[in-house]
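Backbone-to-sequence.
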């Protein structure tokens, strides 16, 4: 009988007794036509007592449909039946009857399979709401249980329309049964504090303990636009990039414009490049304005009236009939561009806030006249929310861009970020207070520097060899083609061109300068390629020329194969070394925060600074420095060993050399605002930077042998205590099976402005059985280090 909710604290008795009682009073007191009509209706009602006593089945309802309709005529005027959406119902139930004509059409359009149900309304809500009605009616409480209720009903073309439900309960009356319990104030208070405890509500209001007798009047109000606006707000405040947001937005606009296949697009405006581009954030809406994936300026993308309307006047531009627009604007590409996408009417809405253009919202329909200048005004209610959301997302995007730049392109390391943040906060707070604040320099005093590098050996020689080989192959092929072309009796003299090419080939076999590659390539492109492009008659020779140009392609051609292999070799080595260093850095940072930066060149080098000023909230001791030094030696050993294992799969079998600079005197570093980079601060500390720059290519004193060597780690130091400290680290790693026993001691040649440097050089053990150990935790090494330290060292 009442299909939506079966479990209720009251029995429902559908009855028209109040209407009948009103008719009885009218029949007894009115002698005019109203009295006559009342008597006629009462005669008919007398034959159907269930209308007063209570209808118990849908069959009774169906059999009395006509009589019920006549009883309801004063409440359902015929003059309003095409306008009002109204019916008789029992509140919160699925049973609805005696609909107005408009209500009937709405349900017919929804289809036979549609079931009308209240949105987001469950058994718990119904039960508690019913109990609140009883409390307010019989116990005098003033519980505000009102909650907007909605029906979501599809139209014939599939658009979902939203209707708010209004109930009139004037013809309902509440009666307790013998099951009804008498509640005390304490019990009522307990119920008020336990909304979700359905068992408690059912205990105090057992099912069937009350009777609601009569009927309710339901009126629906079309709130599709208001509902769309509410859903739009929710969607825009949610995760804007979530996959379902795009679907929600399209559904909202389809409901607002009552177009089931309306499509939504967005074209982003990049204010930096002053161009329209495809959106790179948000719900991934397509761009109907932009062809393919190209970027365009406003003048290129829009033209004439559309540019004036959208860009200059910041107003909506609508075309209700694309075919007519094309006829009226010959040569205008905009209309044809939309027509090619199956669009027959569209609206372009600029998204602008405080004079800043963010992009253009696009609404398109496959039919003419559905979108026009009148319907465009519906956007007025949603554009403020869209603009605020896009503004917020643009700022979020800018913040993310800044974060990426900071992480990948600057040296603002997390260990020192706190000091930059503090200074930025001081600047902002002063500005808010109307004060002028000069940003202070960021300095860290008394920090210990650590420097290390793993350099790719013979990279320059290999680079020159790869260039020479590729160019020689290209020149030899060109010489063969031009000699064959010369035999065909071409009008162009090739003697000088052939002489130059043979001269280049001869020079490449001897040596190569820094500008050789660029010079030869420019010569070939300027002098030789025009001759080859002119060849058309000789098919055999043309095929060879085509093959030559194919092999000249920098990405796929054989004339660049050796250079690609060289670049691939450097990339693989650098990637391997950097990955190891970055991963190990993440581990050691947890032990004690320190500043770290690395650089990729022909290898990987790194700087580290550790001290109390970098992490003022943590106690710093020399043990932290010693642990970091052991970590540095161990990680460089790991990098070189792993590169040795990588060598066998490299296009070029290049090795690496490793170096560590020991500097035990604390220095100061300063962030240089002009270079956005940390550097040593003060004239005394410059000595450290000078040493770093000059030891790379240094030799062993009195020899021509470089201090660095493949398969070995070189440690540069100046003091005897530094030597003793690193011999301890070496011993720990020798016991771990990482370093070999061959420790060399030698002096470094005197460099410009630097003298008295010494070095240790120790070999590495390349053993496949140690692979698992190499990548294991370093904790056991630190434990051994702690055991070897003397109390005075800590």
């Amino acid at each position: 009988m009442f299909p939506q909710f079966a479990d209720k604290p009251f029995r429902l008795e559908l009855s028209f007794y109040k209407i009948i009682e009103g008719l009885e009073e009218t029949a007894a007191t009115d002698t005019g036509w109203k009295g006559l009509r009342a008597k006629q209706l009462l005669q008919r009602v007398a034959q159907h007592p269930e209308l007063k006593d209570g209808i118990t089945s849908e069959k009774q309802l169906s059999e009395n449909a006509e009589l019920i309709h006549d009883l309801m005529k004063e409440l359902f005027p015929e003059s309003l039946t095409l306008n009002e959406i109204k019916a008789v119902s029992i509140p919160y139930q699925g049973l609805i009857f005696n609909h107005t004509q408009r209500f009937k059409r709405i349900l017919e359009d929804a289809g036979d399979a549609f079931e009308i149900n209240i949105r987001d309304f469950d058994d718990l809500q119904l039960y508690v709401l019913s109990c609140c009605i009883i409390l307010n009616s019989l116990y005098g409480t003033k519980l505000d249980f009102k909650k907007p209720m909605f029906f979501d009903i599809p139209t014939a073309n599939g658009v979902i329309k939203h209707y708010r439900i209004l109930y009139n309960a004037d013809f309902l009356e509440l009666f307790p049964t013998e099951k009804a319990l008498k509640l005390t104030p304490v019990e009522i208070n307990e119920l008020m504090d336990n909304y979700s405890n359905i068992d408690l509500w059912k205990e105090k209001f057992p099912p069937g303990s009350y009777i609601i007798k009569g009927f309710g009047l339901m009126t629906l109000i079309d709130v599709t636009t208001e509902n769309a606006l509410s859903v739009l707000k929710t969607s825009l405040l949610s995760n804007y990039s979530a996959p379902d947001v795009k679907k929600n937005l399209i559904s909202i606009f389809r409901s607002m414009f009552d177009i089931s296949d309306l499509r939504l697009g967005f074209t982003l405006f990049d204010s930096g490049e002053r161009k329209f581009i495809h959106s790179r954030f948000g719900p991934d809406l397509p761009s109907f304005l932009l062809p393919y994936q190209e970027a365009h300026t406003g003048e290129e993308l829009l033209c004439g009236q559309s540019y004036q309307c959208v860009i200059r006047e910041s107003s909506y531009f609508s075309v209700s009939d694309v075919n007519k627009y094309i006829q009226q604007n010959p040569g205008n590409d905009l209309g044809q561009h939309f027509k090619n996408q199956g669009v027959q009417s569209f609206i372009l809405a600029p998204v602008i806030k405080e004079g800043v253009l963010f992009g253009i919202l696009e609404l398109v329909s496959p039919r003419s006249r559905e979108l026009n200048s009148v319907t465009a005004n519906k956007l007025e209610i949603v554009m403020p929310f869209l603009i605020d959301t896009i503004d917020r997302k643009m700022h979020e995007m800018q913040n993310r861009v800044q974060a990426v730049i900071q992480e990948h392109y600057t040296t603002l390391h997390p260990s020192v970020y706190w000091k930059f943040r503090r200074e930025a906060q001081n600047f902002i707070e002063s500005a808010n207070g109307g004060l002028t604040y000069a940003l202070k320099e960021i300095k860290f005093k008394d920090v210990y520097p650590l420097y290390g590098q793993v350099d790719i050996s013979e990279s320059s020689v290999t680079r020159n060899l790869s260039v020479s080989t590729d160019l020689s192959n290209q020149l030899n092929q060109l010489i063969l083609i031009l000699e064959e072309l010369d035999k065909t009796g071409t009008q162009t003299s090739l003697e000088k061109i052939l002489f130059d090419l043979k001269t280049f080939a001869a020079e490449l076999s001897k040596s190569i300068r820094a500008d050789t590659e660029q010079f030869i390539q420019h010569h070939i492109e300027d002098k030789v390629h025009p001759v080859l492009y002119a060849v058309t008659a000789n098919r055999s020779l043309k095929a060879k020329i085509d093959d030559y140009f194919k092999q000249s392609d920098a990405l796929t051609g054989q004339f660049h194969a050796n250079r690609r292999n060289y670049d691939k070799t450097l990339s693989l080595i650098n990637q391997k070394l950097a990955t190891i260093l970055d991963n190990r850095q993440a581990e050691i940072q947890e032990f004690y925060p320190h500043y770290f930066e690395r650089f990729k060149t022909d290898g990987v080098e790194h700087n580290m600074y550790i001290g109390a000023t970098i992490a003022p909230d943590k106690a710093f001791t020399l043990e932290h420095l010693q642990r970091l030094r052991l970590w540095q030696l161990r990680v460089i050993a790991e990098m070189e060993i792993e590169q040795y294992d990588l060598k066998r799969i490299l296009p070029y079998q290049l090795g690496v050399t490793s170096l560590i600079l020991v500097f035990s005197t604390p220095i100061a570093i300063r962030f240089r605002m002009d270079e956005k980079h940390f550097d040593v601060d003060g004239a005394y500390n410059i000595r450290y930077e000078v040493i770093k720059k000059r030891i790379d290519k240094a030799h062993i004193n009195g020899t021509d042998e470089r201090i660095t060597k493949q398969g070995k780690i070189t440690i540069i130091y100046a003091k005897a205590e530094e030597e003793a400290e690193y011999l301890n680290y070496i011993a720990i790693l020798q016991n771990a099976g990482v370093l070999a026993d061959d420790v060399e001691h030698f002096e470094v040649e005197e460099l410009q402005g630097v003298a008295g440097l010494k070095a240790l050089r120790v070999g590495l053990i390349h053993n496949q059985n140690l692979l698992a150990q190499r990548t294991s935790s370093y904790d056991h090494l630190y434990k051994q280090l702690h055991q070897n330290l003397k109390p005075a060292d800590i």
